[in-house]
Amino acid sequence: MNLDCSKNQIIIGKPLIYYEVLDSTNLKAQELAEKGAQEGTIVQADRQSAGKGRLGRKWESPPGSGLWFTIILRPKIDPEYGAQATLLSAVVLVEVLEKITGIKATIKWPNDILVGRKKICGILSEMHFNEEAINYMIIGIGLNVNMDQKDFTETLEDIATSVYLESGKKFAGNTLLEAFRVSLEKWYEIWVTEGFKKIRVQWLASSGTIGRVVKVKDNDREIFSGVTEGIDDYGCLLVRNEAGILQSFDFGEISIRY
Ligand code: BT5
C-alpha cells in the first residue's frame, strides 16, 4: 500500500466553515475542494435543504437538532483503498459517541451507525481520483443529536434515533464536533503512518455485522446470503454462504437476521 508518511500532520477542522443553511454540505465541500480547499477543511450547516444519502436517497436534516458536516481529505493513498476512509470515519464516530455520551453504537457495513437496530448516524464518502492518486475525498456525516421522536418524519419514526433519545440528555453540537475533530486527527494519523491494520481491528470490535447471517441485495434483489466473516483492505464485506463459498462485496445493502 502506497502511503506517504513524510507530510506534516494535518489539522482537522481548519478552517471550519459554517452555514445556517445549505443544500448539502457534501456539495459545498466538493465545490471548495475543486477550488483547492486545504485538507482538513470542515463544512457544516445547521440545516440542509437537500441532504444526500447514497444512491440518490435523501438525508433528513432539520435545523437545530443535528450535526450535518463534511470533511475534505487528500490522503496520499492508492484510490483502490479509498473506502478505508469510510470505515475510519465509522470507527471515529463510535468512539466519540461512547466517550462523550456513553452511548454504545455499532457499525453496520458499510456506512451506518446504529444503536440497537435504529440509525443514529450516516456517512456519505465521495472520492475524486485519477488512475494513480486521489485528488480529494469528501466525508459527509449526519449525526442526529437532539431530535425528539416527533422531529422525525413518519418514514423514519421506527428506523431512526438520536443522541437525545438514547441518552436522555441534550448535547451541544459543537461538543460532539470537537470530539470528532480530535478523534479523527488521531485515527487519520494512525492510518497514514501505519496503514489500515489498527483501524480494521477497531472496526471489527465495533461492528454489529460480523458473524451475522445476512442477505446481500442489489437494488432490492437478493444476490447472496451467508455469514459475514470480515472486511478486506478494500473495505469489501466478506460473506460465506452455506456451500462454503466466500464472496466479497464492495457495494449494496445488507439486511441482517437478528
Ligand atoms: C447515508 O445514506 O446514511 C448517508 C447519510 C449522510 C448524510 C450527511 S449529512 C452531511 C453530509 N451532507 C449530505 O448531503 N450528506 C451527508 P444511506 O445509507 O443511503 O441512508 C439513507 C437512508 O437513511 C434514507 O433513505 C432514510 O431511510 C434514512 N434516513 C434519512 N435521514 C435520516 C436521519 N436523519 N436519521 C436516520 N436515518 C435517516
Write up what this structure looks like:
By secondary structure, the protein is an alpha+beta fold. It has 2 domains: 16-206, BirA Bifunctional Protein, domain 2 (2-Layer Sandwich); 213-257, SH3 type barrels, CATH 2.30.30. The chain has 5 helices and 12 strands. Strands 1-2-3-7-6-5-4 form a 7-stranded mixed beta sheet, sandwiched between helices.
What is the CATH superfamily classification of the largest domain? Bira Bifunctional Protein, Domain 2
Q: Largest sheet, described in full? A: 7 strands, mixed
What is the string of helix and strand elements?
A: EHEEHEEEEHHHEEEEE
Number of strand elements? 12
Strand content: 25-35%
Radius of gyration: 18 Å
CATH topology name of the largest domain, in short, is BirA Bifunctional Protein, domain 2
Shape: globular
End-to-end Cα distance: 36 Å
Query: What are the bound molecules?
Result: biotinyl-5-AMP
Low-confidence stretches: 2-6
The number of domains: 2
Can you summarize this structure?
With 258 residues, this protein is of the alpha+beta class.
Structural key phrases:
258 residues, alpha+beta, BirA Bifunctional Protein, domain 2, SH3 type barrels, 2 domains, five-stranded antiparallel β-sheet, 31% strand, disordered N terminus, binds biotinyl-5-AMP
List the helices and strands and how they pair.
Layout: E1 16-22, H1 25-34, E2 42-48, E3 66-73, H2 84-101, E4 106-108, E5 112-115, E6 118-129, E7 134-144, H3 163-167, H4 173-194, H5 197-206, E8 213-218, E9 221-231, E10 237-240, E11 246-249, E12 253-256
Parallel strand pairs: 1-2
Antiparallel strand pairs: 2-3, 3-7, 4-5, 5-6, 6-7, 8-9, 8-12, 9-10, 10-11
Helix pairs in contact: 2-4, 2-5
The structure holds biotinyl-5-AMP (BT5).
